[in-house]
């Protein structure tokens, strides 16, 4: 099969996958959300935390789509679990205990005490179960009309992260498939060892990220933001089908981590295509892929909740398509590249509005680069495509980011920070040896010098201009803790400069390339401490709430103080308990904001706090987190409303954690405080 046929076949396969809507194969009955009290009433007189028999207590009742998982705990650590399923479920056995609505599924423990407690609980279930808990799923919404929505409304919806019917998993697969086609195209006439080395680099990069990348919050507004690429995965039909086969929904935090890992693992493959097209040598592309696969800065952010890593993938893919359009000798492949370019350009903008800066860099690439291979007509078409995309998104960018634009234009004092951004190693991450392996700095300088001497002046000006523009525009944020994240977008031109020196070194001083590769393979281990540094208060709170997630029983209510968060958006337990996938989206528990000064009327609270306290649910918890320290008066050591609420509930502390006050994002700094004395988090249960 020729390459053209293979490429077209792969693209048709991706198109078919996009249009595929998988259906769940499980039985049609579902458990409704919002009936936790009715489910807990099935076990009366036993409530959560009360002893049933022989020291075993009812510990957790997890309500999933098609089953209820009940956990019994004993003081010595023994645990028993049983599942209550619909009688039509494939797991239901004819001889298993049953009630009006459920069949109990479990494996015998051989423990007389455990069997006694289970039998007593099932007796209560049979006595209290009067049916009417199962429902059939509601019919899906009718297809939308074929009328075309106004382009402005559709663009605004996309800019808000509403990708319509596009599934996020399918989109990621499509990007990887396109990057694979590029790699196959670029290596078809190269020695076999290059293809084998590229495959090994992609594998090593993925394995290294699974091994070292921390799963935590490393961005800004981590408890509220849901980036468009993650939303498209969480709300897509593929995840829904996977959840149906898994027997329940997935935690949103897990979906975020695995989605970003998928993009991070694809980065070496994508950068290979970008670098090879730009530098016209697969050896340079191979080194760029190798460097990013082992780059500590990239590894650190590969499984966090931020959008910088996916942004690198999509923008690098856009560059690769631009270079393919300008210089690929195959007319068919040039058409494929220019046809796929608008989707990549637009997705890159959606992932991060500030990526509108790339419009300038894309235009510079079309105008400056590949003068010997790109005729004027290709340049004109490339400019028109990029200009059209810029004209499409620029009005939306201004309307949705007007506050940031005004602050940047009418408060230009941030430009004074630009000099510091270049000269201070902690602020210019590329020269900070704690973050960037020094061998890459040496290679970048050598690459710039060698390329300039070899007559590649356009290339050097392009890459240095790209680095300079992004360093200046990102000087708007000057916090040392946040700079490695913001400077991720400097990584690609930086590595391209270094990779441009590799062909020259390979032909004349090959030992230099081998030394550089040896230094980079040790970089993840040498920088392991920085990669996995989660010693900040926000990351410690993330770990605390994640651990508490398994302590708070299913269906409970958590009261959480939100401080000065007027919209009550920064709820820790709301994000940590959020789940997605399946016909019915159901969070692990309900979260009620408490004592937020000036909560705006638009905030929809299921039950006001005063009403909640007058008629408390059977299971009620209180969480006192970082807002109790940061959302307070400057003259207070601790928000008085937090401790007052604990006393009012007569709450018993079930989990406590004391961590140093080392703030990652300065907007969370307590008034009148600097990094210093410890802060404490409390999880309490109302008596």
Task: Describe the protein in words.
It is a single chain. With 687 residues, this protein is α+β, with helices and mostly antiparallel strands. It is built from 30 helices and 12 strands. Helix 5 runs parallel beside helix 9 and helix 13 packs parallel to helix 15. The N and C termini lie far apart (72 Å). About 4% of the residues have low confidence. It comes from Polyangium sorediatum. This is Glycosyltransferase RgtA/B/C/D-like domain-containing protein. Keywords: Membrane, Signal, Transmembrane, Transmembrane helix.
Short description:
By secondary structure, this protein is of the alpha+beta class. The chain has 30 helices and twelve strands.
Strand coverage percent: 5-15%
Rg from Cα: 28 Å
End-to-end CA span = 72 Å
Counted by DSSP, the helix tally is 30
The largest sheet is: 5 strands, antiparallel
User: Assembly type of the shown chains?
Assistant: single chain
Shape summary: globular
In total, how many beta strands? 12
Please bin the fraction of helical residues.
40-55%
User: Numbering strands along the chain, what is their spatial order in the largest sheet?
Assistant: 1-2-3-4-5
Structural class by sheet pairing and helices:
alpha+beta
Low-confidence stretches: 12-26, 138-149
Q: Report the average pLDDT across residues.
A: 83
């Amino acid at each position: 099969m020729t390459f053209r046929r293979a490429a077209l076949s792969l693209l048709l396969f991706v198109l078919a996958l996009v249009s595929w809507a998988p259906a769940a194969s499980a039985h049609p009955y579902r458990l409704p959300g919002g009936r936790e009290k009715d489910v807990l009433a099935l076990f009366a007189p036993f409530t959560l935390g009360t002893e049933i028999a022989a020291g075993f207590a009812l510990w957790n009742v997890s309500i999933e789509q098609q089953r209820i998982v009940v956990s019994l705990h004993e003081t010595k650590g023994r645990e028993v679990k049983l599942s209550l399923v619909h009688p039509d479920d494939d797991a239901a056995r004819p001889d298993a205990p049953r009630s009006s609505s459920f069949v109990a599924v479990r494996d015998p423990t051989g423990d007389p005490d455990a069997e006694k407690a289970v039998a007593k609980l099932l007796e209560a279930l049979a006595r209290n179960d009067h049916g009417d808990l199962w429902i059939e799923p509601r019919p899906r919404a009718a297809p939308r009309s074929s009328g075309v929505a106004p382009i402005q409304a559709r663009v605004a919806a996309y800019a808000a992260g509403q990708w319509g019917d596009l599934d996020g998993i399918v989109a990621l697969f499509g990007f990887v498939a396109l990057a694979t086609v590029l790699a196959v195209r670029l290596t078809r006439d190269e020695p076999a060892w290059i293809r084998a080395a590229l495959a090994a680099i992609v594998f090593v990069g993925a394995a290294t990220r699974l091994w070292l990348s921390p799963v935590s919050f490393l961005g800004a507004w981590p408890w509220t933001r849901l980036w468009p690429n993650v939303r498209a995965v969480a709300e897509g039909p593929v995840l829904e089908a996977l959840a149906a086969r898994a027997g329940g929904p997935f935690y949103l935090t897990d979906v975020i981590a695995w989605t970003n890992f998928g993009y991070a693992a694809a980065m070496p493959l994508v950068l290979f295509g970008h670098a090879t097209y730009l530098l016209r040598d697969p050896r340079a592309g191979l080194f760029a892929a190798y460097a990013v696969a082992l780059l500590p800065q990239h590894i650190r952010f590969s499984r966090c909740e931020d959008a910088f890593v996916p942004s690198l993938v999509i923008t690098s893919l856009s560059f690769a398509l631009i270079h393919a359009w300008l210089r690929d000798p195959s007319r068919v492949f040039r058409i494929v590249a220019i046809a796929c370019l608008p989707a990549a350009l637009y997705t890159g903008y959606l992932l991060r509005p500030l990526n509108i800066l790339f419009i300038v860099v894309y235009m510079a690439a079309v105008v400056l680069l590949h003068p010997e291979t790109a005729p004027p007509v290709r340049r004109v078409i490339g400019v028109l495509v990029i200009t059209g995309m810029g004209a499409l998104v620029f009005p939306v960018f201004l309307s949705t980011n007007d506050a940031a634009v005004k602050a940047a234009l009418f408060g230009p004092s941030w430009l004074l920070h630009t000099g510091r951004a270049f000269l201070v190693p902690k602020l210019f991450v590329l020269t900070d040896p704690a973050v960037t392996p020094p061998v890459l700095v040496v290679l970048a300088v050598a690459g710039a010098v060698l390329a300039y001497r070899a007559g590649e002046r356009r290339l050097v000006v392009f890459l240095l201009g790209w680095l300079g523009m992004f360093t200046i525009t990102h000087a708007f944020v000057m916090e040392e803790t946040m700079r490695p994240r913001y400077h991720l977008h400097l990584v690609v031109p930086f590595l391209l400069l270094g990779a441009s020196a590799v062909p020259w070194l390979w032909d004349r001083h090959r030992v230099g390339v081998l030394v550089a590769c040896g230094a980079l393979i040790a970089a993840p281990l040498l920088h392991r401490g920085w990669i996995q540094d989660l010693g900040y208060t926000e990351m410690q709170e993330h770990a605390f709430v994640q651990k508490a997630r398994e302590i708070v029983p299913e269906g409970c209510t958590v009261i959480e103080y939100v401080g000065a968060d007027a919209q009550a958006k920064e709820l820790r337990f709301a994000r940590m308990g959020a789940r997605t996938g399946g016909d019915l989206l159901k969070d692990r528990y309900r979260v009620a904001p408490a004592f937020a000064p000036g909560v705006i009327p638009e905030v929809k609270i299921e039950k006001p706090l005063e009403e909640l306290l007058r008629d408390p649910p059977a299971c009620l918890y209180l969480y006192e987190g970082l807002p109790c320290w940061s959302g307070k008066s400057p003259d207070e050591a601790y928000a008085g409303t937090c401790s007052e609420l604990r006393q009012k509930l007569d709450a018993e502390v079930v989990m406590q954690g004391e961590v140093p006050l080392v703030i990652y994002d300065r907007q969370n700094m307590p008034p009148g405080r600097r990094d210093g004395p410890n802060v404490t988090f409390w999880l309490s249960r109302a008596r």
